[in-house]
Design a protein that fits this description.
heterodimer, A: Aldehyde Oxidoreductase, domain 4, 3 domains, 7-stranded mixed sheet, 20 helices, 33 strands, 28% helix, B: Ubiquitin-like (UB roll), 5 helices
Chain lengths: 811, 161
Amino acid sequence: MDHKMTDGTNGYPGKGYKVIGKPVPLIDSRAKVMGQALYTDDIRLHNPLIIKILRSPCASANILSVDSSAALALSGVKGVLTGADFKNSFGVLSISKDEPAIARDRVRYMGEPVAAVAAETSEIAARALRLIKVDYEITDGVFNSKEALKPTDQPLHPELNKKNNLHKEILQEFGDLDQGFADADVVVKKRFRFASINHGFTEPHATQVSIDNNGNITVYSATQVPHYLHMAMAEVLEIPEHNIRVIKPHLGGGFGGKSDPFPHEMIAAKFALDSGRNVKIKFDREEVFFSHHGRHQTDLTMTLGYSREKGITAIDLDTLIDGGAYGSFGIVTTYYNGVLLQGPYKLPNFRFHVQRLYTNKPMCGAMRGHGGVNPRFASEVLLDMACAELGLDPAESRLNMIHKENTLTTNEFRVTSVGLHNGLTESIKRTRWKEKHGKLPFGKGIGVACGFFISGSALPIHWNKLPASTVRMTIDYDGGVTVYSGAADIGQGSDTMLAQMAAEVLGQPLENIKIISADTRTTPVDLGSYSSRVTFMAGNASRNAAIRMRRILIEAACELLEMIPPKYDRPDAPDNFFRQGGRKPDFEQGFLGPNPDYTDGFIIEDGLIRSKQHNASVTYLDAVAKALEFGGILQTSGTYRAPKLGGKFKGAGAGLSPSYSFTAFIVEVTVDPETGFIKVDKATCAHDCGFPLNPLTVRGQIEGCIHMGLGQALMEEMVYDNGATQNPSFLDYKIPSAFEQPEVDIVPAYSDDSEGPFGAKEAGEGILAPVIPAIANAVYDAVGIRLTQLPMRPDRVLAALAKAKDKEAAK
Amino acid sequence: MKLLNLTINGRDITKAVSPGMTLLDFLRDELNLTGTKNGCDKGACGCCSVMIDGKPMLSCLMPALEAEGAVITTIEGIAKGNNLHPVQEAMIEMGAIQCGFCTPAMVINGVHMLAENNNPGNDEVKECISATVCRCTGYNSIEKAMHLAASKMREAARDGS
């Protein structure tokens, strides 16, 4: 085995950093490996009531009555809640607050909460659920997107005043589509179909609430978005936000599945407020699947024009996405289905029409690669087809179309750093692509695809003028540095990243940095862990707070050394300056200023602050003591705000990001024509995450994305029968095991982002999308079939092979 | 309620237990040994694995009373004080830990595998890891960690002899 991978830098220059760019294990990994890390359900509150939720057995029904008298009469039952107890609905997007904590008057999906019980023990709560009588009047349900488009007098959401179940429709056109197709040497078109898939995080949803004598509640919850939960809870419960404290304990995976406020969180808080008791709730795995919020089931038709000279000349996309019963992130998903096709290649002419439908199924929402994954499959497969028709090498053809650095896309996304060209070139070499593509024996194939993703949404979900992320930093008299951030570590390692920022700038060992995060009482606001925003935004905030702190320490050191402190550029507007990493990108010249970061003529290391010029030093602790003399507290803040971006047209805000990641992905597969099984033998990934802050965690994100992409490609699908979830367990919803996971080769594709913290961009999501079409393209290379339906199950492979054989015979 | 006698992480325990209680709930709720996780309650995810009489078992499928007389090691009993087991050390070193929810079960299974054979082949390692669902890592780093732990243990065995 090659253990040298822990270095992971693949020869990329480390720029002389001490902590940044080094393979650093997560700072909480020791607690995790010893079983000491406390996840939400591991917290032990004093004498809590146990909550259980009664869920609807019908997908579509009117609730005629709910009789909870027998349940309430049961000894040990302390309360029952029904839809009537919650006036306000909620939703993560302020433009679609359509979900009640408990169904009122009607149920819209099977598994929807219709009542909840709080009792002294879980056995009593379970018994009480069986005593609640709900009288349902079953109504006609809508179970797929096409049905949902049909006119009806009884839509799922009458409040939208529509005569069908359309939730959101977006049609945008850029450039001249007709001209684009006229410019093409070949035009390819196909229909694609995608199953809905689930995040499959290992820790089921859980929430605990403690309450004090004054009715203040502390909510411990398995959430990616403590801040949004905080806001939603105040609105649903109609209490001031400052009476609520939300804490995210250790979190067992999210992938977008814990990025909404959830009904059970509202229910738990309400029980605590009503009973004055601590409460707890934990889902079983079935409930996780019923709540779902996974990737939308999708039907799409795409037409792609391709020219030998110009590359892609036009894309026309028509998509239906099945949103299930409620809005969740769906409006964003609807936009992302279109706008994320704006990269990684130049796309001069472009139209997309996306419709999100309400159906009587568990709702869909954000999932890793949000909205961009399914259309990416279509465009990358069509591109492969176009190249095949023209007899071109699909990998080399891609090289010529990649966005240049510091350019605008057709819909006015600002593209800054791009490391894809190098990454793809190197991947072609490393895989010996040219010796393999089109030349392997029947059953063996190699395929390529590329990806593009946002590095944080530039706009907040709830419009406000606060920074997107703020970090508070303190140094105590003992020299210990504490970073306070609202960012939610969901296992991706954001706490470690925040600590690396502070350690590097302040010249401290990582062990000297303590992190307090995701606690709405003690940490400043960060919007949450979604849209791959945390490294870019919270990372910059932590770095900026540390730079301010460094200035204070240097000034204190100068006072002790009787030196004149250094003059800083733009002392009045440090955040604007820092936002650009201390550098100003010049778009016309493609020029990036030098990287001053914190070049102040001093070095902090080994417990000393040393002036380079004067060869004089003081101890770090003396400087800290000096700095503390005046106010007794040594504290700074750092913020991140995205720059002003984007066009002036309606919907221009969707997909705007301060930077974008790029990915090249090549896989080698074996297809067994007898069984229809696809085995992925090797994956080669070049992901441009800017400068990799921590190669160990970047590698982990790449391998994790490959796992999840592999699952969606080959086996994962939510199965519904008239709205009833057929496979709500890990026994029936299969995810890839270690045997399916291929060997992974990571190729450097790094760039130096002008605004990312130390040049970094996202690494958590963008990798996933190209995994799936690369596999499909490799399958074509192996056995000559184009699979257009996910997952690419063996039966579909066999059917396509049989069809290809018939076609061959008919010739 | 019935009396249950067993040894957990080297400590003898006698407690009254209701017949319906699983071993997992007994560990988590009666003893506060929350390092053992409940990911599915159905024996499908493996996160609840503990060592019973030297073998990894799913504690969510086992009535606590069936563990009468058993010697059990949970994740809390793997390290010797602050000295981590080589599997734990290797998991940290190789970045095989992300969210960490499956980690205790992965460690339990790895410790068992390497106790049986400190020179496992690739398939043996994959087999061991497949006992637990991990959604974060893609398993590559966990595999590497198991191989690294095996080589550390072989080295220690050589040095010791």
